[in-house]
Amino acid sequence: MKKLLTLILIAGSLSSHAQKWFIGPELGMNLVPNTDDTLGLNFHPGWFGGLNAEYKINDFLSARTGIYLTQKQKTFQTYDSSEFALPLPIPGLVDLLESFNLNTYTETRNRVSQFYFELPLMISANYKQIGAYAGPYVGYNFRTVVRTEERSNSPWVSVLDIESLVGDIDPTGTLGPLINGFIPAEEAYEFTSETSSSYSTLDFGFKFGLRYQAEHLGVNAFYNFGLLDYRGSSIGKRQTHQYFRFSVNYNFGLGKAKNVTGRS
Question: The whole model's pTM is what?
Fold first, then answer.
């Protein structure tokens, strides 16, 4: 009797436990590539987090989904120049100023931060603790913030004294202070931040990635390939969300584990 009881306990300890559903939090970071004229290729971070779920089809296949909050960013810059013009056509001064470069150079940097609810549906091919997965996703943009930095530079302001030049032409001294009010600052900076509703509310694309999943803790790395123009229009070259994502997850099995014993 004791031997039989011992065999039963050994068999029970060798039984494997299979669970179908796993669920848990997932947190990570988006890294969006951006080409800057000064820094070259660099990456802008954005946060990512939510609840992931996985259904184990068999030992080699599983389905993954979840609901996430994610920040997607795009940064771009433009350059422009404008020439200073006298508010009044003062005889003699117009001809004198033609020999000077009166341009103001402006650099504008825009950062568009979009916040999405995101729902993916992927199939994962698994071998032991390593998996490769791919599938589509759909995102809903519920908030867009546009931050704009504008820097302007007028080099001629530091070397050209228009008020003195006007004084040689106008002995009364009334035109100099008047024109000075129209002269731009040598350097100027302006920053604005505002929400916008003109961007697309829908994002759709595909995800491809790799993962390492231990008993509970997992590490994921994948690439997001968006198909829709995030601006809501196709003016010029199409702009989509394409970036890398890295995350960690901690999953719990749902339901009671099923005992599976081997057969001889």
Answer: 0.74
